[in-house]
Amino acid sequence: MLARPRETLHISLRDRIEIALYVAWFRVRAGALLVADDAVFINGREKLVSLMKRQAIPALYGRREFTAAGGLMSYGASIIDQYYQSGLYAGRILSLFLWRQSLPR
Fold it and tell me: Is residue 31 part of a domain?
């Protein structure tokens, strides 16, 4: 593994993301970008992915929703699937609780 310095860049979609991304990309001269799991990026994923594709910047995303929007690759699970699994577990717990309540004492 090559030891390359990492740079953390703080960009918000409320700012002018195109300008901030270009400045960051050319200043760091990185081979790729890693986009963090953040509500700001998740909500604006279509804009972010289209910008990355338009400028041919390889990016790695933390959620599967970015790849569904056209991103290159992701390393995380889908938040929709996580909510679904949480609902299944909550249903199991509630059904066990209701079953125990129905037993005679």
Answer: yes
